[in-house]
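Subject: Proteasome subunit alpha type-7-like

B.,
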Amino acid sequence: IFICIKFLQAYRGAIEVFYRVLLWFCISVRKIVNLDNHIAHACAGLKADTRVLINRARVECQSHRLTVEDPCTVEYITRYIASLQQKYTQSGGVQPFGLFTLIVGFDPYTGSPYLYQTDPSGTFSAWKANATGRNINLIREFLEKNFKETSGQETVKWTIRALLEVLSFSALCMRLSFSLLMLSMTWYFG
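Prediction pasted inline below.
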């Protein structure tokens, strides 16, 4: 489950991961990755598809930076990922990408935060708070009923309350990590 919530001029993400196999390396289960200095990507779905999509998006970010000499916007890379996902639904002999993505970041020109979601069909939409993964309907209902822009401390409490809607407390204590994308364009993991 990945929940992303806007607060003031930052985005806070909470991710909950269950390890089904004890000998799983942490590197292989990264769910939040940087696409560029100011853009992060979180996903739920098939891991092999995730790696392919992330690599293509990173190459596009680098290519855009080399060609235009400016970093790409969050909307630009979201449109690229959505068009790539949509292209794989129309081509014969290829399997569509089996994953939902949340793309979050700051506009490099204005500093405004953005959150987008893409789905396997290639459609994308902008959000203030969203979730993806297991039991997202319950979390989305909670977000719709209780959403308000808050400070950093309140957002952490609010995110944990949203996770508690679908998880037991013992499951929540198993593995929970937070990340924070600030306007300084740095991801903080805690």
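Residues 14 and 27 are 18 Å apart (CA to CA).

T.
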